[in-house]
Design brief:
Length: about 240
């Protein structure tokens, strides 16, 4: 690539093309593996009639929300990981657009089902009010991020779209990071109490959002294609 020479004699180096390596979706999928395993185990319990205990009675009494949450969360985590592969949306394959249209309702189901369980399931013994508040706050944050991301792409604002969808995915992948924060907490403080457990789980969402914000600010800005912008005004 040749450098661009301006009239004043200044030479501006060409912008580097940033491509997301395939290790990123692989790492995101790896992070979601343990929550997926727990989810499959929960579905197996519900399907085969495991022993009902105080910890799982609410799931057997109303299984639909938890089944919806587990299945949609698995689809959202696995397919969503590939939305960060730049070559899938830069070369006009249609993958990013069509998968994105599918993942918007899937992600909303993840968020709404999680909030539904938090609000309407009987409160189990153990989780603190702080954890209850965290689940509502981040569940609402995920759903709002998806909605704002969808509105942004309808307005052809690619940068805002990418930012909001990245935040939504970061919140959705919180369960994976909670496994890590739980392990670190166990090593540092032993068995956590209710308050400490809530802080460890909340820290996972905060860590994911912090990484997401760092990635958002690191990305180069993207402009919508001129033809797309013209087409949107012609409608």
């Amino acid at each position: 690539m040749k450098a661009i020479t301006h009239a004043k004699g200044q030479i501006k180096a060409p912008a580097k093309k940033v491509r997301t390596a395939w290790w990123l979706p692989a790492g995101l999928i790896l992070l979601s593996i343990i929550p997926l395993i727990f989810g499959i185990a929960r579905l197996n319990q519900l399907a085969n009639g495991a022993e009902i205990t105080a910890g799982n009675a609410r799931f057997f009494a109303s299984p639909s929300p938890v089944v919806i949450h587990i299945i949609t969360a698995a689809v959202y985590a696995l397919l969503g990981a590939f939305q960060f592969v730049s070559r899938l949306w830069k070369h006009g394959t249609g993958w990013h657009r069509w998968v994105g249209r599918f993942l918007v309702p899937i992600g909303l189901l993840v968020g709404f089902s999680g909030m539904w369980m938090t609000i309407f399931y009987p409160r189990p013994e153990g989780p603190s009010d702080l954890l209850y508040a965290f689940r509502l706050f981040f569940g609402l944050g995920m759903t709002l991020s998806i909605i704002l991301g969808f509105i942004s792409i309808r307005r052809r604002n690619i940068n805002q779209h990418r930012a909001w969808m990245t935040r939504a995915y970061a919140i959705g992948l919180g369960a994976g990071t909670q496994v890590l924060t739980g392990m670190v907490g166990a090593l540092l403080i032993g068995v956590p109490n209710e308050f400490e457990n809530a802080l460890l789980m909340g820290a996972a969402w905060v860590i994911n959002l912090a990484v997401a914000e760092w990635a958002i600010r690191k990305r180069p800005s993207v402009r919508a294609p001129r033809s797309a912008a013209v087409g949107s005004h012609a409608r």
